[in-house]
Design goal:
The protein is mostly helical and 177 residues long. It has helices at 6-33, 37-63, 85-110, 114-143, 149-158. Helices cover 68% and strands 0% of the residues. It binds fe (ii) ion (2 copies).
């Protein structure tokens, strides 16, 4: 038997997703203060996506009749050495979340919890996309670090991460997107 139940581990992940959401607000605020509105918008939107991930997990726990724990919010970084550092941090964060998602997937398998395994599948796909998205943005800001307006142009032109609705996405607690 695993030491931690899937429900406990998913509750921890809810905390991680809310923390990621708050950290992305922190990054967005940094770029907004630097008058880099496209980078700011990109991270405000990512913050909403992380919140949605948390709310999907909340809905799942409600659906399977497990206790839901809503975590405290700790304060997040809003000052950075330069315009590249926040994206580096975001990429590290997405990679770490990927590992956390794999661990949850494994736990679901270990417990032979088929509905949990099925629920986690969407997040496996999502993390592939998010790591790739952040890696692309890092490549761009590193190339444009002397003049981040070039990164602003890139975001305006390419709309990275701007996606339509995904019919395979798990439902959110409280409804919404
Ligand atoms: Fe997430
Ligand atoms: Fe993410």
């Amino acid at each position: 038997m695993a030491e931690k139940s899937f429900a406990d581990a998913l509750n921890e992940q809810i905390s991680n997703e809310f923390a990621a959401s708050q950290q992305y607000v922190g990054i967005a605020v940094y770029y907004d203060a630097e008058t880099l509105p496209r980078l700011a918008h990109f991270f405000y939107r990512q913050a909403l996506e992380e919140r949605e991930h948390a709310m999907m997990m909340v809905q799942y726990l409600l659906d399977v009749d497990e206790r839901v724990h809503i975590p405290d919010i700790k304060s997040q970084e809003t000052s950075f050495a330069d315009g590249v550092a926040p994206v580096k941090m975001a990429l590290e964060q997405e990679k770490r979340v990927g590992e956390e998602i794999f661990a949850l997937f494994e736990l679901a398998r270990e417990e032979k919890d088929y509905r949990a395994e099925q629920f986690m599948q969407w997040f496996v796909k999502e993390q592939v996309e998010e790591v790739a998205l952040m890696q692309d943005l890092l490549n761009v800001v590193e190339r444009a670090k002397e003049n981040l307006l070039l990164a602003e142009d890139y975001i305006a032109r390419e709309n990275p991460g701007e996606e339509g609705s995904d019919p395979t996405a798990p439902p959110l607690a409280g409804g919404g997107a």
